[in-house]
Write a structure and sequence with these properties.
By secondary structure, the protein is an alpha/beta fold. It has helices spanning 15-31, 89-99, 111-117, 133-139, 165-178, 180-190, 205-209, 216-226, 234-241, 245-256, 260-278, 283-289, 295-306, 310-317; strands spanning 3-9, 38-44, 50-51, 57-58, 62-63, 73-76, 104-107, 125-126, 144-145, 151-154, 157-160. Helix 1 (15-31) crosses helix 6, helix 5 packs antiparallel against helix 6 and helix 11 packs across helix 13 (295-306). The protein is globular. It comes from Herminiimonas glaciei.
Length: 321
């Protein structure tokens, strides 16, 4: 059986939003030794060729008007220039109609804006490129936008973060279709993670802290980053912020998008990753330096967030110099 994949594209589209997922699906077909396992088509909002955001041209296989046939998986590509993503009644009506018959519908990067314009995001939990998360949340207030996830599934709706995250999403779909063993083979061949470490902040708690810089919560985050070995429990941090524990936890979540405990763990893990990559100290010592209660606590944090332990992480990513 051939899984029919269609990617909706438009002038100004991000080329990798199309090519990235397409290559994942076709590599899966190659690994299956079945060229017909997946068929990927580009559907244009207009006939091509039209220019992508990189200046390269895209020639659609069909347009909204000319496309005939069934679709199993429908993805909407995005663009780094969200100004080119505008209301389009023909496109939106086509998406609404197709959404009723496809097994999966989703977006890559800012393609989520198009799904929103078509009325397909209401009541859904989704993600998009981190730089467009606030815009999307403001445009579609009935949608829960998670700015840090690499990809999300809500029912048959799939959304991914920016650009290369579309490949992560496609790989997850391959795993759904054919199992983890094939996904691992595709990931190895394409030099990808089966599950990419961390979220859009790329494990950088420093980057996450920039969103609250200057506020009381921002000051607490800066303190956490500079004092990883300290007692960073909610009671201690709330006292430092001069708030009640309940108010502190609520304000922290509202301003940063994560709980205090999650931020602390991410900060410690971020530092542990850097030390493992750059130094040859024993893992037990690194756990101590990063504020973990013991090596097992650090190992659990690694497994929880990136699905590999610190020893395996060192094997893969430590500097060989």
């Amino acid at each position: 059986m051939t899984i029919q994949v269609a990617v909706l594209a438009f002038p100004g589209v991000q080329l990798l939003d199309i090519a990235g997922p397409a290559d994942v699906f076709m590599e899966a077909a190659r690994q299956l030794n079945d060229a017909r396992a997946y068929r990927v088509q580009i559907i244009g909002t207009e006939s091509g060729p039209f220019k992508s955001s990189s200046g390269l041209y895209v020639t659609p296989d069909a347009t909204l008007q000319s496309f005939r046939g069934s679709i199993d998986t429908l993805l909407v590509a995005g663009s780094p220039d969200t100004d080119v993503i505008t209301e389009n009644s023909t496109r939106d009506a086509w998406l609404k109609k197709r959404a009723k018959s496809v097994r999966r519908i989703g977006s890559v990067c800012t393609g989520a804006l198009i799904l929103g314009m078509a009325g397909l995001l209401e009541g859904k939990r989704i993600t998009t490129h981190w730089s467009s998360a606030e815009k999307l949340a403001a445009m579609f207030p009935q949608t829960e936008v998670d700015p840090d996830c690499i990809y999300l599934r809500d029912g048959n709706l799939y959304t991914s973060a920016g650009v290369t995250a579309g490949m992560d999403l496609a790989l997850a779909m391959v795993e759904e279709d054919h199992g983890r063993e094939l996904a691992l083979k595709v990931a190895r061949e394409m030099v990808m993670f089966v599950k990419r470490p961390g979220g859009q902040s790329q494990f950088s708690s420093h980057l996450a802290a920039q969103h609250t810089e200057g506020s009381t919560i921002g000051q607490i985050q800066a303190y956490v980053l500079a004092n990883l070995r300290a007692d960073l429990s909610v009671p201690q941090l709330a006292e430092r912020a001069r708030m009640s524990e309940r108010s502190f936890a609520r304000t922290f979540k509202a301003e940063s998008g994560s709980t205090p405990a999650s931020f602390v763990e991410a900060a410690r893990l971020d530092q542990a990753r850097r030390l493992i990559e750059e130094q040859s100290q024993p893992l037990k010592r690194i756990a101590q330096l990063c504020g973990f209660s013991n090596l097992d606590a650090m190992r659990k944090a690694f497994m929880r967030r990136i699905s590999i332990g610190p020893a395996e992480y060192r094997r893969r990513f430590a500097s060989k110099e």
